[in-house]
Amino acid sequence: MILVTGGAGFIGANFVLDWFRQSDEPVVNVDKLTYAGNYGTLKPLHDNPRHVFARVDICDRTALDTLFAEHRPRAVLHFAAESHVDRSIHGPADFVQTNVIGTFTLLEAARQHWSTLDAAGQAAFRFLHVSTDEVFGSLSAADQPFSETTPYAPNSPYSASKAGSDHLVRAWHHTYGMPTLTTNCSNNYGPYQFPEKLIPLMIANALAGEPLPVYGDGQNVRDWLYVGDHCSAIREVLARGRVGETYNVGGWNEKKNLEVVHTLCDLLDQSRPKAAGSYRDQITYVKDRPGHDRRYAIDARKLERELGWKPAETFETGLAKTVRWYLDNQHWVDEVASGDYRKWVETNYARRA
Ligand code: NAD
Ligand code: DAU
C-alpha cells in the first residue's frame, strides 16, 4: 500500500488515476478537499476497494497516526500543498500552515510509522516529496537552467513555503536517516487542472468570451511539462531514485507566456471557431504579479542519466490533448468553478484592470 497526500488535486489525482492503470497496489488517498481538491475527479475509483479515500488535513497528527497504523504504507507520496502563487500573495498564512507545518506533521507521522518497521521494512520505505522549480528563484535570459545544485532563492510566499518544506525533508533524511526523495518540477498542464492556473484559465475565459488576462508584458518564461510525464517521472524516482537525493523534472519546453496564449488561441480557432475573428482578439494586458519571476528553466539531465526518464509529450502534442480534454469536459470546469472560485476571480483580477 502507498499513501498519497493531495490525491484529489490536479497532479495528485492524475498520479492516482495513472497508478491504477499500471498497478494493483492499493492507495490510501489523504486530502483535505480544499477549494483545489475535487473528489469528483476520482470518480473512476469510487467503487474500487483498493482506493481508500480519507478526508484528512495533513496538519492533523492524530488522524495521520491512525491512518499510518491502520494501513502501514510502504511509501508516502506527498503532493498536498497550497499551490497557487497569486493566492499566496493575497493570503500567505494557509501556505505556511499546509506547506511548512503540514509537511512537518506528515514527516513526524511517517517517522513514527517508520520506526515501527523491521530493518528490511525501514530500508525499503520511501517518503517522496513533490516540490517545485520555483524554490530556485528567477533566471535571466542568459542564465543556465536550474540544476539540482542551484542555490535556493525563493521569491513568493508560495515558493518560500515550498523551500521550507524541502529543507525539512532534507533534514529528516540527514538527521534521522529516513529514506526520503525530493522532486523539483516545472509548470505542469493537462486534464483536471483547476482553472485558476494559466492554461485552463485561458481556455475557460476564451470559450466564455471573456478577456484573456496576460500579466505584465507577457514575456515571462516557464518550462511546461505534461502532467502524465510528471507522473511517470515520480514513479521512476519512487522505484529507483537514490535515497536522500533530489531530482529536477522538466519538459525542455521553455515558452513565453504570450506564446502559450497565442498557441492556445490558435488551437481553439481550429477546433471551436468563433462566429467572427480569433480568440487572440480577447487578449488583454493587465497589471503584473508582484515579484513576478521572469524565467524558470529546468535541467533534467540527472533524471535522464540515472533513471532513463524523458518526457513522452512535446508541448504541441500535450497542449493539443489538453485543449481537447477541456472541450470535452466543460462540465468538470463548471463543477469546480463554484461560488468561492468566482470570489477569487473578483479578488485577483479586479485590481489588475
Ligand atoms: P493543487 O492545488 O491542484 O492540489 C492540491 C491538493 O492538496 C488539493 O487536492 C487540496 O485539497 C490538497 N490539500 C491542500 N491543503 C491540504 C491539507 N492541509 N491537507 C490535506 N490536503 C490538502 O496542486 P497541484 O498543482 O496538483 O500540485 C501538487 C503538488 O505539486 C504541490 O506540492 C505543488 O507544490 C507541486 N508542484 C505543482 C506544479 C504545478 O505546475 N501545478 C509544478 C511543480 C510542483
Ligand atoms: O513552476 C512550477 C509552478 O508552476 C508550481 O510550483 C505552481 O504550483 C504552479 O501554480 C505554477 O506556478 P506559476 O505561477 O508559474 O503558474 P501560473 O499558471 O499561475 O502562471 C503561469 C504564468 O502565467 C506566470 O508567469 C503568470 C502568468 N499568468 C498567470 C495567470 C493566472 C498570466 O499572465 N495571467 C494569468 O491570469
UniProtKB/TrEMBL annotation:
Required co-factors: NAD(+)
Catalytic activity: dTDP-alpha-D-glucose = dTDP-4-dehydro-6-deoxy-alpha-D-glucose + H2O
GO BP annotations listed: nucleotide-sugar metabolic process
Documented EC number(s): 4.2.1.46
GO MF terms, alphabetically ordered: dTDP-glucose 4,6-dehydratase activity
SUPFAM superfamilies the record matches: NAD(P)-binding Rossmann-fold domains
A matching Pfam family: GDP_Man_Dehyd
Keywords, ordered alphabetically: Lyase, NAD
Ranges for domain NAD(P)-binding: 3-322
Residue stretches in coiled coil: none
Membrane spanning residue stretches: none
NCBIfam families assigned to the protein according to its UniProt record, in alphabetical order: dTDP_gluc_dehyt
Family as reported in the entry's similarity comment: Belongs to the NAD(P)-dependent epimerase/dehydratase family. dTDP-glucose dehydratase subfamily.
Protein known as: dTDP-glucose 4,6-dehydratase
Species per Swiss-Prot/TrEMBL record: Paraburkholderia dinghuensis
